[in-house]
Amino acid sequence: MSHDDAPFEIHVHGDVKLRPEADFDALQDALKPLWKYAGARSLADGAASLYEDEPGIRFDPHERLLQMCWTVRGDEDFRHQLDDVCMSLNELSEAGAPIEVTFYDAEYDEEDEEEGRDSRDDFILLFVGPTPEAIMQAQRDLLVEDVVNLMERHFDGAELGGVVGEIDKLFSDRFEALASSLDIGRSSRGPGGNGTGGHGGGRRPRHLH
Fold first, then answer.
1. What are 71-93's pLDDT values in tens digits?
2. Helices 161-179, 132-151: crossing angle, 10 deg rounding
3. Is the Cβ–Cβ distance between 30 and 24 less than 8 Å?
4. Are 121 and 113 within 8 A, CB to CB?
5. CA distances from 203 to 12, 44, 108, 120 (A)
6. Model confidence pLDDT, tens digit, residues 3-14
7. Which of 49, 77, 154, 161 is deepest in the core (most CB within 10 A)?
8. What is the Cα–Cα distance from 146 to 28, expressed in whole angstroms?
9. Exposure class string for 147-185: b at 16+ Cβ within 10 A, else e
10. Element (H, E) at 93
């Protein structure tokens, strides 16, 4: 398919540790919704990013690591690819990991920004992992990192043990509730129960390498 006139440049970013048995063929199948969306016939053909300075989609078999820093032109329909990708990566992952998906308004420019117009940028944070507990651990680790980085502007890191303890308690309570729920399987499979997103807050900067 052609996305030359697409309204968004969509950036997918994240590193996922894979199981020992996860090989290139399994990864190619898991990521098929992405490379097919880009109009490619294989992962090797579709792994390159829209921007040359981005690594694209890489598989390190020695480290068993999937690395994604990949941009493609597209529309809102790209969101439909994310369910299948996340479910497939759940099967291949060894540990929980966040995946960031950013929609950049391709038609928004400096003149729009100077005149105070809002862009259509959007951001989704997804999590994948082999188990609900692994996914929650990844969510917890990212939240602790964000909160500590914010609060260290005002407090010494040694003073934040109580804050981290409260975050751990929140996630412990959430996991206990999830474990007792009949929906535990559905909640752990796709991004619907493990993603956050929304508009606002200005434009997110592109990842620098």
1. 999 999 999 999 999 999 999 99
2. 160
3. no
4. no
5. 16, 31, 10, 9
6. 667 899 999 999
7. 49
8. 32
9. eeeeeeeeeeeeebeeeeeebeeebeeebeebeeeeebe
10. none
